[in-house]
């Protein structure tokens, strides 16, 4: 468990975002190798987010284990003429516990605005899914001194009329995603602290118990120093989650200095 300065307990959460990687056999090979290696991890939530096509097979294997299943996206309508889309009830049906919403790649390449992100968050929660809500500034925004303005907008718009205790926030600076350029622990802590303070200011009494994950080139080498930050409650991991051994090491980050 992580204890922050106010002694609020926040259970670490380590989530793998596989993006558009892995066929069904590749996903299952990962899961078969990974599960026994983390079976003894009792003090963290472990989540994997395979592509849609591997969700069903993964769900069947994950039943009764300590690894939870997430989708990477959804569409906010429940059903109907939306060719190519997947709804929240469909994700529940296939066995998902979580869904990632607002990932920067969705915002950047697929037009997910704050308004759309907010609709997706509500659709997920209304259907009993848990949400990993992603947010973060681009390099251009950081260099222009707009980081906090962007974070505030994404947080308040994306979580408009949403109870924050129902979501896990993932701070993912866009310049750190898939670039090998990680935020320093100081940069991560500063942003996480800011996000928590904004949650508090927006009247969310539960702000201290909301988990805020860091994402952006997390690796076995840097996870310990990031997890040592008082407001970093876990990690959302892309590239380094694709190999079981690497993700296992991240899940087994060094405890004890929180
Ligand atoms: C991500 O996709 O959420 C991510 C953080 O990717 P990477 O770890 O590869 O930077």
CATH homologous superfamily caption: Aldolase class I
Q: How big a fraction of the residues is strand?
A: 15-25%
Order of helices and strands: EEEHEHEHEHHEHHEHEHEH
- Average the pLDDT over all residues and give the rounded result: 95
- Tell me what the CATH architecture is: Alpha-Beta Barrel
> Helix- and strand-based class?
alpha/beta
List segments where confidence is low: pLDDT < 50 over at least 5 consecutive residues.
none
Number of domains: 1
How would you describe the shape? globular
Number of helices: 10
CATH domain topology = TIM Barrel
| Oligomeric nature of the chains | single chain
Main sheet properties:
8 strands, parallel, barrel
Tally of strands: 10
